[in-house]
Amino acid sequence: MKVAIGTDTYWPRVNGVTVSIQTLKRELEKMGHECYILAPTYDDKVKEIEKNVIRIPALHVSTISKEDRLTSPFAKGKIFKHLDEIKPDIIHVQTEFTMGTMVKKYALKHNIPLIITCHTFWEEYIHHYIPFFPEKPEKAFVRYLTKKFFKNAKYIIVPTERMEEKLKQYNVDAKTVVVPTGIAKEDFDGISKEDEKKNSFLYEKYPVLKNKKVLLYVGRVGHEKNLSFLLKSMQKLKEKFKDFVLLIVGDGPGRKEFEEMTKTLGIEDNVIFTGYMDRKIIKRVYAFADVFTFASKTETQGLVTIEAMICGTPVVAIGEMGTKDVMQGDNGGFMVKDDLDEFTDKIYLLLTDEKLYSQKSKEAYEYSMNWTTDVQIKKIMDVYEKALKG
Q1: How far apart are CA 306 and CA 28, in angstroms?
Q2: Do 382 and 335 reside in the same domain of the chain?
Q3: Could you tell me if 244 and 351 lie in one domain?
Q4: How many whole angstroms separate alpha carbon 332 and alpha carbon 183?
Q5: Are 9 and 97 within one domain?
Q6: Looking at the structure, do residues 86 and 202 belong to the same domain, yes or no?
Q7: pLDDT tens digits, residue range 86-140?
Q8: Measured between alpha carbons, how far is residue 206 from residues 177, 251, 280 in Å?
Q9: In terms of domains, do 329 and 202 share one?
Q10: C-alpha to C-alpha distance for 10 and 226, rounded to whole angstroms
Q11: Mean pLDDT throughout 346-356?
């Protein structure tokens, strides 16, 4: 089977959609299928090292996001030419912007089964990206565009039941299938927490981490991730537990403001902003951490919680949106309300109760095995096969 994936985001852009797409491609190729990714160009000087990734000229939309690119709307002919050469059996669109739109048009024109994955709950995210429009009409417009974009798909893949319910509220007229994005076990498994605590590469750059309890956040450093809540929680934690450091791994437009916020809250000595880290070493950071902390309320899935769990690191997270669907309660940690005291208390409990910590660490690993790629790829293949049969 030949699968062509159209996406407006891919490496070197670091986000959950990028990881999801690369994981899907890798799993399809393991099964002997051919998978091609059509993605925007980020830097013409960067040499492509991944097989069957086709770069299309893109525009830099800095007024919306400095990190992202928008596939050129004038590249339709080039995209169609590449797809003519590939001759895909399935077209799988992963994003709703210019690349997704043009690849979708090709699928409909050539009567190729069209699958679309809905990764992002744009109604909640859009105001963070375009804050200069009134929020209410902005959300209404997003709902209209969502319904229009998903029209004509054979199947829509959604990562959670919550997203499926939302699309039904939009009256999207297409079959939906819930398939969580799988995590490749081999990408995160096999690291000893004990060894990392003794010999972490982080000690050389951040010697303050020695003999401290380490909390961790991994993700975009933006306002939509509710990092102000997380930092306020650290201020509360410091009132009763001083020997800790929060590592914030990632980058984004809010970094400077959040760095200033740590000074205002008096926790600048307890928080380290590391910037981006290569995914090849991130599992060592997950294993090194004592507790993974996640306050985002806008996640479609929040798979970083599962990545942490595979490394045996318990999670404390706000139980809303995708995080609620993933954790499904206190599995592998604690899923709490949007409440600073409760969030902080659960972190404190894991840092101070050794027996509970050991139990939750073991539970985290065992629960994470429900979310591995070998489980989820079978569901994707079932969708493809049904789409091909009509």
Answers
A1: 21
A2: no
A3: yes
A4: 16
A5: yes
A6: no
A7: 999 999 999 999 999 999 999 999 999 999 999 876 666 555 556 666 777 777 7
A8: 45, 18, 19
A9: yes
A10: 24
A11: 98
243 shares a domain with 174? no
Spatial separation of the C-alpha atoms in residues 209 and 164, rounded to whole Å: 42
Residues 174 and 190 in one domain: no
Both 257 and 285 in a single domain?
Answer: yes
- Rounded Cα distance between 223 and 210, Å, is 30
Give per-residue pLDDT as tens, 188-228. 988 999 999 999 999 999 999 999 999 999 999 999 999 99
Q: Rounded to two decimals, what is the model's pTM?
A: 0.74
What is the number of domains present in the chain?
2
**What range does the domain containing 350 cover?**
185-370
Contact 333, 292 (CB under 8 A): yes
Strand ranges, E, within 74-223: 90-93, 114-117, 155-158, 175-178, 213-218
